[in-house]
What does this fold into?
Amino acid sequence: MNDRPLSLADFTAALQAAAQDPGGSVELLLRTLPPRKAALLRAAAISHDFDADLLQVLEPGLGQTQAETLCTEFLKLSMVTTVEGALKIHDQARQHLFRSWLGADRREAFRDLSGRLAAHFEALKQTAVGAAQSVAENRQIFHLIGANEAAGFEAFKTRFQSARKQFELAECEALLRLVREYGESIEPVRRLWIIHLEGDLRADLRRFDEAKAAYQAVLADPQATPELRARSWYRIGNLEREQRHWAEAETAYGEARNAAAAVKSEGLGFRITDGLTAVYRETGRLDEAEAMLERAIKRAGEVGNRASLTVFYNSMGMLLQKRGDTGPAIEAFKQSLARLHEEGETFRQAQVLNNLGLAYADRTEWAESQRYLEDCLRIEEQRGHTLGQAKTLHNLVRAYIALGQESKGLETAERAAGLFVDVRDWFHAAVVKRMMGRIQRRARRYPEARKAFGESLGLFQQAGDDGEAAATQVELSEVERRRRLPWYIWVALVLFGLLVLVFLLAIAGDL
Amino acid sequence: MPEAAAGYLDALLAEFVNREDEVKAFIRLLEDGTRTVLAVWGEGGVGKTSLQAKMKHELALRSLRKAEIAWNDTYNYDYLAIMRKLRDDCGVDHFKSFTDLVNYFTVPEYNLNINLQGGVNVLQDAKLENTQVRDITGIVIKDLMLDKPRTDKDVPEAERVMRLTDAFIPGLAAATAGAPFVIFMDAAEKMADKTRSWIWDGLLTHARDGKLPGVKFVICGRAEPKPDASFKYTCQVRQLQPLKLEHIEAYLEKRGLKQGREFAMLLLAVSKGNILELSNQVDAYLNLMEAAQGR
It folds into this structure.
């Protein structure tokens, strides 16, 4: 990078040299500005936009009038635009200038300027409300990373995780975009954390392939810490489990457990155990799952990990239910629910309430089932969790139908299918549509049944489940056959026709 | 600053070259009742912002109104922020129900003043004491600009989006009735996936289906938008190409430079027709000339 002022005679050579570098034209332009002005414009690029006040933060000796004059002059440059009252360096140019700060030669000055900007936005955050407060907070975090990477990165992670917990996924995306601006300058393990969090976001958006690729990128990096490795394997396990790839899920959880052995995080170990027992449960290895859960419950009790206990009781309930022991299963679910109540964990009660609803459904106690499922739905709706709502609605359909509320059941199924589609869960959307087809078929509404089976078939194909698609095709074909009249109707019609013919012949004979 | 901003826009327009096809497409968008969306995409620095400035100028010549949304790195316009911005740009009067509903979803202990049918809940609003019913029709509802869901009532997000959009669309239709109204969206590549889904499924579908007669959208971004087949007749997608030699010559002339074809060819070679690169190089050259003349 050449900061030397340029002369007109050197222009052509400098221009050709600039063409070789990304951002070369920006550097070329800066070399034609007075050094102080060029330095201030470069400093302004640390921020995403600027005005006279911000220029004074960057250069404290600058007076208000001077700062305003400089803004007017900067605006004459083609790469500076104005957006909503602030000045903004064109993205491409700003990215180049920002990166120019990340090299070792400017690092100290960058820390100092970033520190001042972080303090400036911290002060703004205190007085702002609503969206303005969010903007100030994001900008404060962004500059804090520049001033003190460790503190800034922790603030970023905290904000990201809090936004993720609230399902503010757009906010998560914005935060990731901000932190990615630091590129390679971020310490390697933190860079891996960024990739890991990107994986989390993709998983929340149900882009499983992208999420898995992110976690695999973390695992492929030799600098990944045991904690990151354990967490990435664990997340892959969850992704595989979500997609019902049981063998892959088991492998991933196994790897997660190995990696977690080197991590002092009992909570993570418990989560991995829970994932693994879910795989055992779903693949019919109920004894293995039960033994593992019993050990886990004992251990969680010993170390006083109440959060994990609630999870394990819930899982134990699911396991017992799978085995057909609905009474003990309901007891286990209620144990879990009681603990969640004690901890004031409203949102997490949803899953347990759902399980209780299903357990009562297995005992054909439909009114109880409906009660728990509706409680669950209320929580999922409060939470804004689309997939949770879809699953609960799906479960409620059975209760409504059993209680004789067929139209409510179908309406609920339609809502569930729509929500599954919204979150790209084609498989469950297909299952719900097939259920609707069966309800319609039972009620002899064949056109509606055909429509539902047809949609289900398309969704199974979209989910890539050929087995279920083939089975649904069979059901669809059966309903299609209902279009044709049964053989006995044809016989009756022929007989009737013959009778008419005989009658007509008789009349003709009489005539 | 406002004067400087106006000067900036004047300069941008004075230096505008090429893009005749895109400007024509924009004018067709204004005149054609079927088309509702013009999506322009191209690499960074290829001239999307300049093109938008030109389009805004064309609007001003026709005395037509507009609203603008530009995504940036520090503030992620989500569905609610977009609707608030459009409301503020269109004029708040037609959006009372919407604003009321926004407050209802974000302000603790807030009661709706206007019911969904547009009536006024006189008895529910303690703030309206000593007010005649006839005055209430002129009720002013101020958006308290909170952006997190209220903590005392957890309405699901899906429902919030649906109800707010439903309350917003009639307001937008009423506020933009009579003449084309253009909504410019810039830096679309920065919008979040969820926001993109809402724009296409929650906003543009209403325009496509004729619920927003006269509202036109210009969406600019780096990534190619891929609208689904249902937008076939209402959305036009255009890619901006780099400038060619003749455009660079025209640009240099507009910047007052008459250095000849060779200079233009040199600039084309180093800028590769990217208007941002080119304008930086020309700015640099002019600075040097000015310095040399000042010496």
Notes: Chain B has eleven helices and five strands. The beta strands of chain B are 37-41, 65-70, 181-186, 215-221, 235-239. The longest helix of chain B spans residues 275-294.
